[in-house]
């Protein structure tokens, strides 16, 4: 019989940012979309960890929300909190590659495919990026189309634009 996993969560709020954030005892495991609902977290938890219990614990999440707050205030460009990521081996490789994208830089999906040594897996890379459970900290917002256009983002394109602008990547032509 497997042991139930405790997932601690809080609702991070700062200015216009409202994000459900969750961690296990091992590290940050989920950051939801801006103004997302609790159901987004619950659905992810049900898929990632079939035996889980969601417990609100603002104090346990304080180190994670402190770093999020610093990032949004432009006082942090690199996160130091531990992560507890749940995905396939391929997804984990893609997410690790995302964490290697420097603050303020943008890469294409094909750049990420090259980084993980799977240059023909661009679509699979896109699918893995779309499953990234930890928005912002695993910076999938730094990936755009090869043609320079903004592409899908689990948190919505408006959130992606906000994050890129925060990192100094302004482009009025992004649609």
How would a crystallographer describe the biggest sheet? 4 strands, mixed
Give the radius of gyration. 16 Å
What sequence of helices (H) and strands (E) makes up the elements?
EEEHEHHEHHEH
* Helix-residue proportion: 25-40%
SS summary, helix count: 6
Strand content: 15-25%
* Strand order within the widest beta sheet: 3-2-1-4
The residue ranges in which pLDDT falls below 50 over 5 or more consecutive positions are none
Cα distance, first to last residue? 49 Å
Which whole number gives the mean pLDDT? 91
Tell me about this structure.
By secondary structure, this protein is α/β, with parallel strands linked by helices. The protein contains 6 helices and 6 strands. A 4-stranded mixed beta sheet has the order 3-2-1-4, sandwiched between helices. The chain has a two-stranded parallel sheet with strand order 5-6. The protein is globular. The termini are far apart. The mean pLDDT is 91.
Topology, pairings included?
Blueprint: E1 5-14, E2 17-23, E3 28-31, H1 38-48, E4 52-56, H2 62-72, H3 89-99, E5 107-108, H4 109-115, H5 122-130, E6 143-144, H6 157-166
Parallel strand pairs: 1-4, 5-6
Antiparallel strand pairs: 1-2, 2-3
Helix pairs in contact: 4-5
Looking at this protein, list some descriptive labels.
175 residues, alpha/beta, two-stranded parallel ribbon, 34% helix
């Amino acid at each position: 019989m497997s042991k139930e996993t405790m997932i601690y969560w809080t609702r991070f709020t700062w200015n216009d940012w409202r994000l459900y954030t969750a961690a296990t005892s091992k590290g940050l495991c989920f950051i939801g979309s801006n103004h997302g609902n609790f159901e987004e977290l619950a659905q992810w938890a049900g898929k990632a960890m079939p035996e889980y219990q969601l417990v609100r614990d603002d104090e346990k999440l304080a180190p994670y929300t402190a770093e999020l707050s610093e990032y949004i205030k432009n006082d942090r460009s690199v996160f130091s909190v531990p992560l507890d990521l749940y995905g396939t081996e391929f997804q984990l490789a893609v997410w690790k590659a995302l964490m290697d994208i420097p603050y303020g830089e943008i890469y294409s999906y094909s750049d990420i495919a090259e980084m993980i040594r799977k240059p023909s897996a661009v679509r699979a890379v896109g699918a893995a990026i779309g499953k990234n459970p930890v928005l912002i900290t695993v910076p999938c917002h730094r990936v755009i189309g090869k043609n320079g256009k903004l592409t899908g983002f689990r948190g919505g394109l408006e959130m992606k634009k906000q994050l890129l602008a925060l990192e100094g990547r302004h482009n009025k032509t992004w649609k």
